Amino acid sequence: MGHRVLVVEDEEDIAFPLVRTLEREGYDVGWVDSGQKALDELVARTTEVLILDLGLPDMDGLEVCKQARAAGYEGAIMIVTARAGELDRVVGLDYGADDYLAKPFGLAELQARVRALLRRTGAGSGAGGDEAEGGLRIDVGARRVYAGDTEVPLTGKEFDVLSILAANKDKVVSRGRLMADVWDENWYGSTKTLDVTIGRLRQKLESQGVTERVVAVRGVGFRLEAPVPGS
């Protein structure tokens, strides 16, 4: 059986397509429609990824997130919500969430985010992990980055850029999205700020022997590339 994913969503017309899509990907998927049921399920069964809606009937999803972490849940938490404000995203991450997906969203994007979360939490390659020495590991909750067992010291902006690139590994992330998500959609400064941050990030990763590379795609944005096997 594949990795366990728990969907916490009280609207059936949203939950059912999610469950079906994830099951087709080979995941062992559970579904509950309230916060308390989610907390009970986390105690009863090992769960690698929790997909959590904020607008639940019995308690706010942020409270579920907070209680799950307080109870020792160490899996990945992805918040799914119609609340589009930046404040909710920041608060959600402060409460212990690892990722944030705003409604409406594409099912393909959800699948990619779940795969990224499993890689980042080490669940993607099974217990114990087969991560090569120097492989990149990101602890989103603690905002820390490691090359193998060695921590890579990053600034807040460098960490935010890397987290977005890692969540879209091997895909191009546009300069506009990085600027909007890391700085602010109302940022009026030079986009050279992004280039400087990318340059410092590359230097720090390379100096620690990280095997993934941050690659510029001319005129578009940047991509975090996985190492080529055997290279």
Key phrases:
231 residues; alpha/beta; Rossmann fold; Arc Repressor Mutant, subunit A; 2 domains; five-stranded parallel β-sheet
Description:
There is one protein chain. The protein is an alpha/beta fold and 231 residues long. It has two domains: 4-123, Rossmann fold; 131-225, Winged helix-like DNA-binding domain superfamily/Winged helix DNA-binding domain (Arc Repressor Mutant, subunit A, Orthogonal Bundle), CATH 1.10.10. Helices cover 40% and strands 21% of the residues. It has eight helices and eleven strands. The chain has helices spanning 12-24, 35-44, 61-70, 86-94, 107-120, 156-167, 175-183, 192-207, and strands at residues 4-8, 28-32, 49-53, 76-81, 99-102, 136-139, 144-147, 150-152, 172-174, 213-217, 221-225. The strands form three sheets. A five-stranded parallel β-sheet has the order 2-1-3-4-5, with helices on both faces. Strands 6-7-8 form a three-stranded antiparallel β-sheet, with helices on one face. Helix 4 (86-94) links the parallel strand 4 and strand 5 (99-102). Helix 2 runs parallel beside helix 3, helix 6 (156-167) crosses helix 7 (175-183) and helix 6 packs across helix 8. It is globular and about 45 Å long. The two termini are 32 Å apart.
